Amino acid sequence: MKIAPSLLSADFSKIAGEIALVEGAGANYLHLDVMDGRFVPNITWGPKIIGDLRKLSPLVFDTHLMIVEPEKYVEDFRKAGCDIITFHLEATVHAQRLLTHVKSLGAKAGISICPQTPVGMLEDLIEDIDLILIMSVNPGFGGQAYIPNSIKKVREARELIDAYNPACELEIDGGIGRKNIAEVVAAGVDVCVAGNAIFGAADPAAELQALRALAEPATAGAR
Ligand code: DX5
Ligand code: ZN
What we know:
Blueprint: E1 2-5, H1 15-24, E2 29-35, H2 47-54, E3 60-66, H3 74-80, E4 84-88, H4 95-104, E5 108-113, E6 131-135, H5 150-164, E7 169-173, H6 181-186, E8 191-194, H7 196-199, H8 204-222
Parallel strand pairs: 1-8, 2-3, 3-4, 4-5, 5-6, 6-7, 7-8
Helix pairs in contact: 2-3
The protein binds D-xylitol-5-phosphate and zinc ion.
């Protein structure tokens, strides 16, 4: 299983050190939350900042676009160095076209769904998706409480992936920490995003390793 620390909860006054910490602790992806103040009630950063962060780390940049009209910006994010570009199904009408476009830029194409969106909405797109991101909180902020119904969505997404596109990765984002990481991984998650759990800890590197130690037996046991 993979761990993707979310920089949303990192301290940007010492961002190079924060990235080095999680990289050294074995992070697999760096999760970058892009928010526009329209799709979600918060604002973060855009391609310029991500391009600058790109100089600090060779880690896979796992970009989570929480923006309206994502089709307008995917090229800029790809140029900035994003490796995985995930947009919200709720934010675009022509999702299949956008998946194809993202892949034509040489990035992996992900789709995220908010808590109210059924996994079944992805059924007719599954063969074109490189990564499904299940939101286990309402997107917009770090440090929110995990929504328990998410486990049901993880199981449904796992079934969809196993049946139609086993190469697709399954990621979960929101409220993941020591108390639930084993459970979601056992249900089929490949990539766990963790923001507050890691960067809010006194020792982020040790916390990342503790999360991995809890999750890895669940991977072996379940799948
Ligand atoms: C929330 C973001 C998450 C956020 C998760 O909208 O998409 O990536 O950083 O933070 P935690 O792990 O603190 O819930
Ligand atoms: Zn995110």
